[in-house]
């Protein structure tokens, strides 16, 4: 718990005891963002530090939302949806955490946190690669982790998104990234759905804007985790996101899993 921790390129030193209770987060590169409000950096008991999960840069990880650059009003809306049970996460434990956070955070702190994350520029850190075979992985740390050795398997109809350096991921380093393997042809297929639609599916760009960079209070998708995007599409279909969700529920009712993966792969490959 008290062993000094380091990441490449940072002069800062932390120990696990500094942040393992979620009332704090390592800020290895404070020069990469504006000063964090207290609720983001340290939390306000019983509310945890937002940066513990979503990182000081707001980049997030595949298991949670990338908040940087989202409209502040949208962030506030979503947190309040967690608070009243109109939104859940993809994993029961993470839903429990976010529901508790949404309940404990004050509206004033929520506005400060939302304003902070909205002011940040989102920097894509997931490389999208089309491939027929992928490294074998297992679930750990709420995400996929590459198995030891070099064994590979067919990708099938999946997205395999994993850290390029799991040790740095667990240290909450914000200067490396992830790789997302997607089935061959996904990006081109997703580009058609995004720009022209497919069957009864409306073009994604008709709401999320050109190149999926967002419009008004409708969130940007470009450059963001494809795993996260697909998870949200599935939650819309299953009723896990019911707040102001009618347009998306209608949209996903016509999307196959293959369509969802393709759309997410295309979105993740775009520049914000």
Question: What does this 3D model show about the protein?
Answer:
The chain starts with 37 loop residues before the first helix and ends with a helix. It has eleven helices and seven strands. With 272 residues, it is of the alpha+beta class. It folds into two domains: 104 residues, Orthogonal Bundle (Cytochrome Bc1 Complex, Chain D, domain 2); 144 residues, Cytochrome Bc1 Complex, Chain D, domain 2. The mean pLDDT is 96. The strands form three sheets. Strands 1-7-6 form a three-stranded mixed beta sheet, with helices on one face. A two-stranded antiparallel ribbon has the order 2-5. A two-stranded antiparallel ribbon has the order 3-4. The longest helix has 13 residues. 37% of the residues lie in helices and 10% in strands.
Write the layout of secondary structure elements.
Blueprint: H1 38-41, H2 50-54, H3 72-83, H4 92-104, H5 107-119, E1 126-130, E2 133-135, E3 137-140, E4 143-146, E5 152-154, E6 160-163, H6 166-170, E7 178-182, H7 186-196, H8 205-208, H9 226-238, H10 246-252, H11 257-269
Parallel strand pairs: 1-7
Antiparallel strand pairs: 2-5, 3-4, 6-7
Helix pairs in contact: 3-4, 3-5, 7-11, 9-10, 9-11
CATH class of the largest domain: Mainly Alpha
Give, in order, the helices and strands.
HHHHHEEEEEEHEHHHHH
Number of domains: 2
Which percent range fits the helix content? 25-40%
- The CATH homologous superfamily of the largest domain is named Cytochrome c-like domain
Number of helices: 11
**Named CATH topology of the largest domain:** Cytochrome Bc1 Complex, Chain D, domain 2
The gyration radius over C-alpha positions equals: 18 Å
Q: Which strands sit side by side, in order, in the main sheet?
A: 1-7-6
